[in-house]
Amino acid sequence: MMGPRQEAQAALFYEFSLDDHVPQDHLLRSIDRFVDLDGIRTHLAHFYSHTGRPSTDPELLIRMLIVGYCFGIRSERRLCEEVHLNLAYRWFCRLDLADRVPDHSTFSKNRHGRFRESELLRHLFETTVARCIAEGLVSGQRLAVDASLIEADANRQYSAPKEDWDVARIDADAAPRAVREYLDTLDEAAFGAATPVEPKFTSYSDPASQWTAARKGPAFFAYSDNYLIDTDHGVILDVEATRSIRQAEVGSTKTMLNRVREKFELRPERLIADTAYGSGPMLGWLVDEKIAPHIPVIDKAGRTDGTWSRADFEWDAENNQYICPEGEALKQFRRNYSDPNRGPTGKGVAKYQALKNTCQTCPSKPKCCPNADARKITREQHEDARDIARAIAKTPQYKISMKLRKKVEMLFAHLKRILGLGRLRLRGPCGANDEFLLAATAQNLRKLAKLFPAPQHSRKA
Ligand code: SF4
């Protein structure tokens, strides 16, 4: 039998509990148990005036942003609509049915004002890291680092080639916020000072973003999202936005390692990374910090013509010399110079050479130095650290490390596919930093929720 037609009928009174309508296994129920915003008000207290109209509750804004980044809703306008309509989102934001959702403009006002001044989003992210440590998900021993390109909100059509781009002509007072941030970060190692090389194009709308073709496809404007993770459970320990060039990404690794040591007293036994991080200075820094570099070494000494490369010569540290496969010594100095600057050394590079007479009569000369009178080998400043990394690369632990490294790549895949962060919505270094921090916060919360799902009963019970 067909039932009666459903007529819209407004009841005068409702007895309605949001809690009863949020499924027991809803992701937000699990996440809610790990969101600790008690310290938010204290953290922000200095940034609010004691007089005037009461502001929107910052905890409500943060809860809404967590919902947005956990479910890939990064448009604040859409987020307000979704929270207005979705019962689970309302429940998580502590909004009752009749409570008003804040206007979308509230987010940008707070983001550009108090949230940035107080570094609230970093504080929020660090509370999730502290919670992961408290739950026993982080040993802090085997850390991995990597960077991923995230497209900036900038287009090639609205950009200038390097010969037309003139910083001196920018009027900082009249410039948009992203341009002012670009000017402010010109001397920072993560942005303007990362390299003296000018990019091919600079965007007018977001000049701090980097024109890059690193994905081997069409070039685009991008920022790099740098993650430092603990490989035990793939918890993100730190996040940093930089220009999309190797020097800036590698430099951010030092920043992040120093920060986790100061904040959480984490002193890793090893750092796992790909070849981009295998430069001499980076390996040297890690060895000085007593962190084992599980990183492939960048080595340009290899030869393609079949002759012996540097790896075929044995290093004799005690006597400061190389020993060739024929057992002859390659020395840096064969006499004492009264003026040390006259020695055959370059900038940070030492040169070692065999005796000409020995090489000329050597039966292995065609395999060693067919086109030279005597064999020469260079040794870079951080060669000791590079040797340590090469020795580590031959161990079984290194093979395990290379598998663990995939965890950071999986986090980036999750970031782009599930959280939808393929292209930034906010402009400027601060905008990129805000988005990366919120996304990393969401990823850590989702990790906690997945590993420790909420018990299957009502919150009030
Ligand atoms: S050519 Fe010189 S350096 Fe090379 S193997 Fe022979 S003696 Fe040693």
Main sheet properties = 6 strands, mixed
Contiguous low-pLDDT stretches (5 residues minimum) are none
Classification by helices and strands: alpha+beta
Helix proportion of residues, in percent? 25-40%
DSSP strand content? 5-15%
What's the total count of β strands? 13
The first-level CATH class of the largest domain is given as Alpha Beta
Task: Tell me which CATH architecture of the largest domain applies here.
Answer: 2-Layer Sandwich
Overall, the morphology is: elongated
What does the radius of gyration come to? 29 Å
* Straight-line distance between termini: 39 Å
Question: With helices defined by DSSP (H or I, 4 residues minimum), what is the helix count?
Answer: 17
Can you list the ligands bound to this structure? iron/sulfur cluster
| pLDDT averaged over residues | 89
**H/E element order:** HHHHHHHHEEHEEEEHEHEEEEEHHEHHHH
Number of domains: 3
CATH fold label of the largest domain: Nucleotidyltransferase, domain 5
Identify the CATH homologous superfamily of the largest domain. Answer: Ribonuclease H-like superfamily/Ribonuclease H
